[in-house]
Description:
Elements: E1 2-6, H1 13-24, E2 28-30, H2 31-41, H3 44-54, H4 61-71, E3 81-84, H5 90-103, E4 109-114, H6 117-125, E5 127-130, E6 136-138, E7 158-159, H7 166-180, H8 183-189, E8 193-197, H9 202-215
Parallel strand pairs: 1-3, 1-4, 2-3, 4-8
Antiparallel strand pairs: 5-6, 5-7
This protein binds adenosine monophosphate.
Amino acid sequence: MILVLLGPPGAGKGTQADYIQQRLNIPKLSTGDMLRAAAASGSQLGKHVQEIMAAGQLVSDDIMIDLIRHRIKEDDCKQGFILDGFPRTLAQAEALTKMFETEKLQLSGVLEFEVNDAALIERICGRFACAKCGAGYHDTFKPTKVAGVCDECGGTEFTRRKDDNAETVAKRLQAYHDMTAPLLPYYENQGILRSIDGMQDIEAVRSDVEKVLKRA
Ligand code: AMP
């Protein structure tokens, strides 16, 4: 199965992609994670994208399309994959459609997570993750059971994304409305868009995702 997860930053794409990844045993391809890994590596590409991410802007279509074109050809993608954070512009979506035509792949569905902007800012600004295992938490909505200790691995070091601050989030949301929202009609016209109410709690969203997967 090949799925695209669409929605503004903080809508819950990553959380649900983790769930689908386990449920279907197919990899989640998060372009944000790939770019953060590149930035951490200090490579030439990493240095370039770090500044763009910190400014809440989008990395160029050429770089992103190239990244995905190579990634989907890797062995672990043979049974399908979940795209989390790609495509983010119409040019990326059109390139993806062409890539699938060339590779004879079929997009099974596009899941959109709908959440209003006010809720997104609150969600994003409280996010943090375990530095050891990557488990995600939130100051208000999902704190660790024991303060300062990861529920999953017992780790005591945590990280916050540099771009999860109010100023950058506003720019990321703007980029979503300007550049990514036009993908909704693009996929709706293809009859493969499924919208999910992302304002619900994580379990309720997961149950809606499950219903969509059964029909895809
Ligand atoms: P995310 O983790 O999906 O919120 O992505 C973090 C940042 O990485 C974004 O704010 C962009 O700067 C960059 N990014 C991730 N995916 C893409 C993409 N498909 N196109 C352009 N920029 C991207």
